Amino acid sequence: MDVISVIRTKRDKGELSPEQIDWVIDAYTRGAVADEQMSALAMAILLNGMNRDEIARWTAAMIASGERMDFSSLSRPTADKHSTGGVGDKITLPLAPLVAACGAAVPQLSGRGLGHTGGTLDKLESIPGWRALLSNEEMLHVLDTTGAVICAAGDGLAPADKKLYALRDVTGTVEAIPLIASSIMSKKIAEGTGSLVLDVKVGTGAFMKSIEDARELASTMVQLGTDSGVKTVALLTDMSTPLGLTAGNALEVRESVEVLAGGGPADVVELTIALAREMLDAAGIKDADPAKALADGSAMDVWRRMIAAQGGDPDATLPVAREQHVVTAPSSGVLTRLDAYDIGIAAWRLGAGRARKEDPVQAGAGVELHAKPGDTITAGQPLLTLHTDTPEKFDYALTSLENAWDVAPTGTSFEASPIVLD
Ligand code: URA
């Protein structure tokens, strides 16, 4: 087998054979196929697509590139959630302890932010002492003793994806449905969860801008999971407006703790409970009430134990950025749009995200929202507060906010898009 014939097959809109797929994934993982060759193949896949058989084989080959985890020793059913990423998407933080409080074991392998979308691990690392890197034994121990664990995927899990994802990120080949579906599902299937709920985001702040693309991605992933024996369901959810009132690491942890304490913004609470219900249903747990577990403090108890088990101090003061800048409303009326992508870019520029994988993030940086679409606002009132340790970034962040909102005359009727679209 030679890599040039594999690239040519896809370049010329052909179907890759199972042997070609197995060979190229294995050879790339071993270093026998060079990055420039794999990036040519990834671009050919982005431009010409793959059919479902090719995607299934590609996913299986990525799973086979590494180890598989096994949770069969646990007494509870396992349930995991994966979001395709968005702005202000802190849902994993309250959701994992909530679902654990309702009786499931939640092994939540999470990622770091890149570009305008935040990453769960970056958020949790703003809690003093908290560790994302656990050995497989430590992960199982935290899961067994607290019911939930949120940590980084070990190096042994789908190493082909780790290498390929980093390459796609710098070669403009992230936004390909076959590559996104196989990347996400290879990690989830190798992780060994019994059930999986996918939160596929749609809108300006998401990878998938149209509902048709989001539906295609969701159905591809559901089929991959189901064919591998993982009970998999997907929700399509709105990402045209940031979730909640914060985008940024420590800011989002603070808001998640408010949700766990029985408060927090209505959209974050609604989506957390909707996803919890789907996870519990997929795990076969019928009589739990996630709204009650939020209200009675049992989800908060799991959160505190989970954070402490990973070295974090749940009572520690969270970092606050050194400088703040308030953006005021330019006119009075009804706020009809607050763009998730623009807010995400601003948070990223303020230091909440990274431009390259190795960059550090600022724990306190980000954007706080003082109004959401549908609210009536008055000229001069605070609309956003920008937070950063590097105030020279304010101007740069402000340029991304120039077209970030629309205000309609007072009294204009406004119907908010539902959070769960399908
Ligand atoms: N998240 C992943 O894990 N992989 C992708 O390709 C995109 C988002």
Automatic annotation (TrEMBL):
Descriptive protein name: Thymidine phosphorylase
Molecular-function GO terms, alphabetical: 1,4-alpha-oligoglucan phosphorylase activity; thymidine phosphorylase activity
The family this protein is said to belong to: Belongs to the thymidine/pyrimidine-nucleoside phosphorylase family.
Top EC group: transferase
An example Gene Ontology CC term for this record: cytosol
Function: The enzymes which catalyze the reversible phosphorolysis of pyrimidine nucleosides are involved in the degradation of these compounds and in their utilization as carbon and energy sources, or in the rescue of pyrimidine bases for nucleotide synthesis.
Keywords, ordered alphabetically: Glycosyltransferase, Transferase
Domain Pyrimidine nucleoside phosphorylase C-terminal: 334-408
GO BP term (any one): pyrimidine nucleoside metabolic process
Record EC number: 2.4.2.4
Top-level taxonomy: Bacteria, Bacillati, Actinomycetota, Actinomycetes, Kitasatosporales
Catalytic activity line of the entry: thymidine + phosphate = 2-deoxy-alpha-D-ribose 1-phosphate + thymine
Subunit field text: Homodimer.
